[in-house]
Structure formats: structure tokens, C-alpha cells
Design a protein that fits this description.
With about 220 residues, the protein is α+β, with helices and mostly antiparallel strands. It has 10 helices and 6 strands; from the N terminus they run αααββββαααβαβααα. The chain has one domain (about 5-220): 2-Layer Sandwich (BirA Bifunctional Protein, domain 2), CATH 3.30.930. β3 and β4 (about 115-120) form a beta hairpin. α4 packs across α5 (about 140-145).
Length: about 220
């Protein structure tokens, strides 16, 4: 699947991030980046069916689990047209393509290799639902957050508010978690893991271990895990 040549291509793209170069090297992008990514996505489908049957591995070239190579530059000072990483998201069947919905994520780049799970920058409604469940049942939250299965593979991370969010008591036992703006777990990958033959097995094992967190988030958002 992914090889060192994949990362070398991403480095070349970073150094030549323009439409003319990409057009001249499109076949290399397809063989070194797109096709291995789609192969990985297809290989993940049976595993997801076992431990997270309501999440989808969609190997379509466009609109599936492989995120677009084209950057959205409309509101960015950086006008380079292409992403220099591979982003793969296994979304909930009800996620409707929303990158902020609960999901499993794979990030392949020269400077960052990692797996991620959870909700990144959930919208205000989703964030409120997650906070409300934590506030209502902190024991359930602590059980998910500190579950031996989860912490064996994942580190809970993301941005937080500096002050308690409006409507939540500052002395709530879970106030540090109620301040969170992201509910994501991160598991770094080594270069050998990302380019090795065991990536599907490794990703499946780690994603399956995130069930305590993912189940809690899905319950909060009233979707099936």
C-alpha cells in the first residue's frame, strides 16, 4: 500500500505546489498516493464491519473516505492549491460527509503520521450534546475516558477553553473535560508502521480499542455506534 515513494512524492508536491507541476505528475499522484489509499480503504471495510458497523470505508475516487487533494483556499492566506498529506476518514453512516462528526481518521505526511478518533471541532449543537452528557453522567464519561482499552492505544487531546463554558458549574467534577472544544484521541505512527504490510491490522486494532470513547460520543449525538 503506502511506500516510502509515497512520502517522497508528497515532499515533491510540497516543493512544487502548483497546477502545472501537478498536471504533469498526475499519473504519479494516482499510482503513489490515490491508488494505495483506495486499496487501504477497501481493506479496512471488513474490519470496520466487525467493530464499528455503522461506520463506512468508502473507496470511491471522489466523495468517499479519501479526502480531496484540493485545498479550500477561499478564506486562507495560503493559496497553494494542493494538500501535501493523505487524509482518510471513515465516517458514520449518518455523518453526511461532515468532517466534524464522530469518525476514524488516518493522516499520512512526511512531517506527521498518526491515527485519530473522535470529534474534531464539533459544531455548537454537537458540542453541547457531548458536554450535556458529560455533565449529566460524569461517571460514564470517566469510565470511557479512562478505560484501560482506550488509554492503552490513545491519548485524548485537542483544544480547550480557558474558562468554563457558559451554563456549566465551575466546580463540576468533569469541568476540565467540559472545557474541551475537541474530543479526539491521537495515536502516532512510525514510518515503518505507515509503510509496512501490517498497517491495516494495526489501524484496525487501534481503532477497535477506541470503542469506549466512540460509543460515548455516539450516545451523546444519538447515533448508533
Amino acid at each position: 500500500m503506502f511506500a516510502k515513494a509515497t512520502l517522497k512524492f508528497l515532499d515533491e508536491l510540497a516543493a512544487n505546489n502548483n497546477r502545472n507541476w501537478f498536471a504533469a505528475n498526475k499519473s504519479r499522484y494516482e499510482s503513489l498516493v490515490r491508488d494505495p489509499a483506495l486499496e487501504f480503504i477497501s481493506a479496512m471495510a471488513p474490519a470496520l464491519e466487525k467493530f464499528a458497523p455503522h461506520f463506512r470505508a468508502d473507496p470511491r475516487k471522489m466523495g468517499g473516505s479519501l479526502m480531496r487533494v484540493f485545498r479550500d483556499t477561499r478564506f486562507s492566506r495560503d493559496k497553494t492549491p494542493y494538500k501535501t498529506n493523505i487524509g482518510i476518514q471513515f465516517r458514520h453512516e449518518l455523518g453526511k460527509g461532515n468532517v466534524h462528526a464522530p469518525g476514524f481518521y488516518v493522516h499520512i505526511a512526511t512531517d506527521e503520521l498518526f491515527l485519530a478518533v473522535g470529534c474534531w471541532r464539533p459544531d455548537s449543537d454537537a458540542l453541547g450534546r457531548i458536554r450535556d452528557l458529560i455533565a449529566k453522567d460524569p461517571k460514564k464519561w470517566f469510565s470511557a475516558r479512562d478505560h484501560k482499552k482506550f488509554v492503552s492505544e490513545w491519548e485524548l487531546t485537542g483544544d480547550s477553553l480557558t474558562r468554563p463554558p457558559r451554563g456549566y458549574a465551575a466546580d463540576h467534577p468533569a469541568i476540565d473535560d467540559l472545557k474541551r472544544k475537541d474530543f479526539i484521541g491521537i495515536a502516532p505512527l512510525t514510518l515503518a508502521e505507515a509503510t509496512g504490510s501490517g498497517l491495516v491490522r494495526l489501524a484496525s486494532t487501534r481503532f477497535a480499542a477506541s470503542a469506549p470513547l466512540m460509543s460515548f460520543l455516539c450516545e451523546a449525538l444519538e447515533v448508533q455506534y
